UniProtKB/TrEMBL annotation:
Name of the protein in its database record: ABC transporter ATP-binding protein
Annotated ranges, domain ABC transporter: 4-235
The organism's place on the tree of life at top rank: Bacteria
Keywords: ATP-binding, Nucleotide-binding, Transport
Origin organism lineage: Bacteria, Bacillati, Bacillota, Bacilli, Bacillales
Signal peptide stretch: none
Single annotated GO MF: ATP binding
Keyword ATP-binding: yes
Pfam family membership, one: ABC_tran
Amino acid sequence: MDFLNVQGIHHTYFTKNSATTALTDVSIAVEEGEFVSFLGPSGCGKTTLLSIIAGLLQPTEGTVILEGKKVEKTGQSIGYMLQQDYLFPWKTIEENILLGLKISNQLDSTKKAYALTLLEQMGLKGVESQFPKQLSGGMRQRVALVRTLTTEPKLLMLDEPFSALDYQTKLKLEDLVSNTLKSFKKTAILVTHDIGEAIAMSDRVFLFSASPGKLHKTFIIPKELREETPFKARSHEAYSRIFQTVWKELESLEPANKH
């Protein structure tokens, strides 16, 4: 049985004067421990689909099944990492990373020790009593990842988490996130506009077409790339081949090329 099953998702946004279909007939299955990416032109419904999978949005039609159970509202089994770190500026780093545990009434000495160990594993030892403004953007995103992982979610949603960072920091964080999720055997969905990032980090890439958003093509990333860290994968010979293939496919979906 698949870990995550998205079946026949159709979603329309209604306003007083209009109806806009964001997604039509989207069905995907994700296995436990798999890392997949959603890629596609702007307006193809990637973030809408992420919100539906997380239970934040009820689809007009279709169902989402996570570990055999229908997702109807957002639960503890799903963790989010967003483009912005959303750390509370008036709280210390320690208070920030323990927030999810506190809200869900899971905070005890064992969980706290686990959270602080994670912080250390992320190379952030000694920042516990500092405030977010004292840290760089990359460090803050690492804190956000620790906060997400402390509640031990089964599925991680990564919504363009690296797009606000400079290129060097982004590459380092891709490796760190990828290695961390692999070591915890986490299942993750990445929403990105960056073809390279999708290829370097994923087992499979789902390419969506826009207006309305639907699954256009699925790319299986070759084993030799999946076994490398994202940074090393980018310089592998197989990387440029698949990059060109995905690029051409994405180009064909851009409205300017439709005559």
